[in-house]
Amino acid sequence: MGERVAMISLHTSPLDQPGTGDAGGMNVYVIELSKRLAAQGIEVDVFTRATSSALHQVVEAADGVLVRHIAAGPFEGLTKGELPGQLCTFAREVLRAEAIQPLGHYDAVHSHYWLSGQVGALARDRWNVPLVHSMHTMAKVKNEALAEGDTPEPLSRIIGEEQVVDAADLLVANTHTEAQQLVELYGASPDAVEVIHPGVDLSVFSPRGRAEARRELGLPEDAVVLLFAGRIQPLKAPDVLLRAVDVLLQQDPSLRRRLVVPVVGGPSGSGLEHPTALADLAADLGISDVVRFVPPVTQTELAVWSSAATAVAVPSYNESFGLVAVEAQATGTPVVAAAVGGLTTVVRDGVSGLLVDTHEPRDWAATLRRLIDDPALVEQLGKGAVAHAQEFSWDHTAERTLEAYARAAGRMRAEMAT
Fold first, then answer.
1. What keywords are annotated for this sequence in UniProt (predicted)?
2. Residues annotated in a binding site
C-alpha cells in the first residue's frame, strides 16, 4: 500500500459535531479511521463540501490528516436530497486539487456514502488508482424497514448506489449482515466485499462508574436513567422509547419519582421537517417532566452520559452498524436495541445488552422493565458490555482497511490485465 489516500466524504465533514444535521456515526468513522491510518504512516486527505464561508480551505484535523473543503453549491441550506445537483462541481474541484500535484499523488480513493462514491468512481478512472467504498447506509435496506411517517429513498439514489457498487474495486461492509445485503440486494460479487467492523475510542469510552458520572451531570444517584443518543429522526425511532416510557409509567406510576429520560442529539433528515415533533410527543403523552432534551455533545461528554445511564436505548429501524451502541457498552452500560441490521452484531443479546424483535412500545417497556427491576442483571450485562466492546478497536479497523486497499489495488490490476 502506498503513502497517500484520498478520503471522500461529500455530504458530512469529519469536523462536524455528531448528533445533529447529517453528522453522526459516519463522521466519527471517517475522522477516527483517518487518524489511525495516519498513525501507520499513511497521509490522508479528506475531501468534504464546504458548509460555511468561514471555513479554511484546508484544515489539519490531526497529524497526517488534512480536511479539504470544496466549494460546491450554497454554503448553507442545501438538503441531502439536493446534493446530487452539486456532484459535478464537487468532482471537478476534487480533480483540480489533485491536478496541481505530481503524477501519482494518491494511491487509493476511499469514498463514504453513495454520493461520495459517484465522485470516487470518477477519481478512480482519472487517477488510475483503486476505489474502496463504504456504503454506511443503503436505500434498498432503508426502504424495506421504513419508519412510520418517514420518506422513502428515491429511485435516483438506488440507481446511484448500484452504479457505485459496479464501479468500486472493493466494498467495505460494517458487518456480515451488510455484506449479505450488498450481494443479495445490489448484486455485488461476494469476493469484492470485505467485512471490517468500525471501532470505538476506548480511551474516551471506558468505565468510570455510574455514581461518579451522575454526580458530574447532576443526576440523582438512585435514578433510573434511560438514555437515547443520536440524531432525532424517524429512522432512529426515539419516539419508540418515549412511548415505552409512557407504558412504564402507566404500569407503575411510582416510577415517575426516579425516572430520567435524556434525549441527547438534534433534529436530522426528515426530522428537520418537524423539529419539535419529539418534544410535542412527550407533551402529548404527559411525560415532559421525565424527558430531558440535551443538545448534541462532544464524544467526551457523551461518554459521561452513557456511563450515567441505567441503559442506553437504540430503537432504530435500521443501522448498518450502530456506533452509539458500541460506545455505550464500552462505558459499562447495557444497551437495549432493536434486533435490526448491524445491531445484532454490535449487541450480544443476554451478554452485553438485550435485543427487542419489534418496535412495539409494550415490548420495549417489558424489556426495559427487566433492567429496572433487576440491578444485578444491569451489573452483569454491564460487565459483558465492557468485554464485548474490547473487540471493536479503531487500530484493528485501520489495519484491516490498509489490507483492503492493497487487495483493491490487486483486483484493479487483475481487471486491467484481462
1. Glycosyltransferase, Magnesium, Metal-binding, Transferase
2. 11, 17-18, 22-27, 80, 113, 137, 157, 231, 236, 297, 309, 319, 327, 333
